[in-house]
TrEMBL record:
Species in which this protein is naturally found: Coptis chinensis
Keywords, comma-separated and alphabetical: Magnesium, Metal-binding
Name listed for the protein in its UniProt record: Uncharacterized protein
Superkingdom, taxonomy of origin: Eukaryota
GO molecular function: metal ion binding; methyltransferase activity
InterPro entries membership: MeTrfase_7, MeTrfase_capping, SAM-dependent_MTases_sf
Length: 418
């Protein structure tokens, strides 16, 4: 009997061991699958992290402010990605061009340019492989204002191209990268020389502050207290600039070529609605507080306005139709939280008004600091954005605020216009 019990015990023990091993195998396979999926998602981002580390000499994961700025930009590019790739793949399949020229307008000197360009090239390369075609030559032209740090970007280009070749094989390319400094509110390229134009978070900036808004005292953008003449002046400046933008691109893009731009917009017909204006009103509040403390002259604040505009869908569509050179293929809307870390993919996100306020303030500082320094002086900046950070944090306690974004996909009309 004792021998029988020992035998049954040994059999049960072996069975339990087999089950443990099977469970472990399943767990390992599941973990491997998760790692593979995560690796695939991070692959496109890894080149950007490496390049930024080379450019700016910091480890990208060391500071939350760097991550806050990058998170917002990556989220916008990620949400626009399906539309960009859809347009570029459709264009490639209709032309099978042996030399593909891509221009990125308002490229800046951060991660935005390289990530977007990398994804555009990926889309073309994967599509040509499906057809069994040879790789086209790529010409990439990076554009921004002359003050942009092109030299810093160019330092990263050899590594960028080397990585593309390593990932895609010796048959890839070649890929040539050049810079074109200048305002995109004017001609930048030769006639019919560009296949595809991309621009992200640039075309909502105006060529200048609208004229005739001296009566917008105490505000730095359109606000609920702005006179109607201020609303009208901003709209007229947007129409003038966007028409000039389209006129210039209509000369440069080949017939049938594509253009995809992402800008901040608004759903409301009211240009002073909170959805597009309140983030600037909170900055104006911080400036007014500094005026009351004697840190800023009231006249200085009264003469400062931001050169940007968040249009409605109707205003964008009307401008494209009136200019007449492009078919409007698609105009899609998507939202991005002010604190880009607060998203459905970030399961570990816990709201902290101080941290969220700082993240949003850092993003807005990156956009506005040079304008503010030129007008008010550098000495106010730290105090200003500390106050602004606190204002934003308090507001986010009450409301989850979002940027409204438009992805605008256009095709250059073929033949002469009527």
């Amino acid at each position: 009997m004792a021998v029988g019990r020992d035998h049954r015990g040994q059999v049960l023990n072996e069975e339990f061991q087999r089950r443990d091993h099977n469970i472990q195998d399943v767990m390992i396979e599941d973990l491997q699958r998760q790692v593979a999926e995560l690796t695939q998602r991070l692959r496109a981002q890894d080149i950007v992290y490496r390049i930024i580390s080379i450019l700016f000499g910091f480890k990208i994961f060391e500071t939350s402010t760097n991550l806050g700025i990058m998170a917002c930009m990556r989220t916008v590019i990620s949400k626009a990605k399906p539309f960009v790739q859809g347009a570029i793949i459709d264009l490639y399949c209709k032309t099978f061009s042996k030399c593909f020229t891509i221009a990125d307008l308002g490229c800046s000197s951060g991660p935005n340019t390289l990530l977007a360009i990398s994804e555009i090239i990926d889309a073309i390369d994967s599509t040509r492989r499906k057809f069994g075609h040879r790789s086209p030559e790529f010409r990439v032209i990076l554009n921004d204002l002359p003050g942009n740090d092109f030299n810093t970007i160019f330092k990263s280009i050899p590594y960028f191209i080397e990585t593309l070749k390593k990932e895609k094989g010796d048959e890839f390319g070649p890929c040539f990268v050049a810079g074109m400094p200048g305002s995109f509110y004017g001609r930048l390229f030769p006639n019919e020389s560009i296949n595809f134009i991309h621009s992200s978070y640039s075309a909502h900036f105006l060529s200048q502050v609208p004229l005739g808004i001296e009566n917008n005292e105490g505000n730095i953008y359109i606000a609920a207290t702005s006179p109607p003449s201020v609303d009208k002046a901003y709209l007229e400046q947007f129409r003038s600039d966007f028409t000039l933008f389209l006129n210039s691109r209509s000369e440069e893009v080949i017939p049938g070529g594509r253009m995809v731009i992402t800008i901040i917009g608004r759903r409301s017909s009211d240009p002073s609605s909170k959805e597009c204006c309140h983030i600037w009103e909170l900055l104006a509040q911080a400036l007014r507080e500094m005026v009351s403390q004697g840190l800023i002259e009231e006249a200085k604040l009264a003469s400062f306005n931001l050169p940007l505009y968040a249009p409605s869908r109707k205003e964008v569509s009307a401008s494209i139709q009136e200019q007449g050179s492009f078919h409007l293929d698609m105009l899609e809307t998507f939202d991005v939280n002010w604190d880009a870390g607060d998203n459905s993919q970030n399961k570990n996100y816990v709201f902290d008004k101080i941290k969220s306020g700082k993240k949003v303030a850092e993003c807005i500082r990156a956009v506005t600091e040079s304008m503010l320094v030129n007008h008010f002086g550098e000495e106010i900046i730290e105090d200003l954005f500390q106050k602004y950070s606190e204002n934003v944090g308090e507001y986010l306690v009450k409301e989850k605020a979002k940027y409204i974004n438009f992805v605008i996909c256009m095709t250059k009309k073929e033949g002469k216009l009527d």
